[in-house]
Amino acid sequence: MKIEEIKSIIKPGDVININGKAKWWKIWTKITHWGIRFYQRRLFGKDSNYRDTHTTLYFSSDKVFSTTTPKARWETLEHQLERKFTVYRYNIREYSDEHIKFMEEIASTLIDLEYDVGDLVDFLIGGLLGYQHVRKIRLFEFSRKKMVCSTSVRAIQENLRKTLEEDGDFSFPRLFNKLNPEKWSQKEIEKFKKTDVEATTPAHYANSSWFECEFVKVCSWEDLKDKEK
Known about the structure:
Mean pLDDT: 85
CATH architecture: Alpha-Beta Complex
Structural class: alpha+beta
Helix content: 25-40%
Order of helices and strands: HEHEEEHEHHHHHEH
Number of strands: 6
Low-confidence stretches: 121-131, 135-146
Shape: globular
């Protein structure tokens, strides 16, 4: 797998999902991965892309925003490629240089933000109780100043949207805000209001066809592996 090939494909603002795999002795990480996948499979179904466990936001080769334990940080593109990854690109409109600069500045303010393990527990409990799109369970959230990976990435994207709307630009719709009737039952559509930012998971990016196809797959570790054969 060549880093030069990835660099020719990936663009600033692309979302990178990681299908995590923990060493056998990292019991807590393995449990965390299981919990994320359990929740995502329950939400999108066993035939969906539910196995991704981490979401990052790409800006440049040495600036990939990642909220992970213990704190949010900048990572390298090379680090993302060491794992099973998939790159997704925003599909509604193209980001301008100003849009990317804005999101990068917002991401910079989140560096060193502490990772919220309690959020993951609340995701699981909320999913079991049937709260699929809204965040109603906050038993283990000890601080509103903490986030998990996918919620922090979406927070950056929604910050851009809200800022543009204040200037009269409504060309960026709210993410995951409309259900695709081909994927959801009429009952689910009728009770749906919105997907809370705090309820966003890696699988939302991997399954945006369940909403308005906000993101499209650009490449993955499997594609590049096939090219090497």
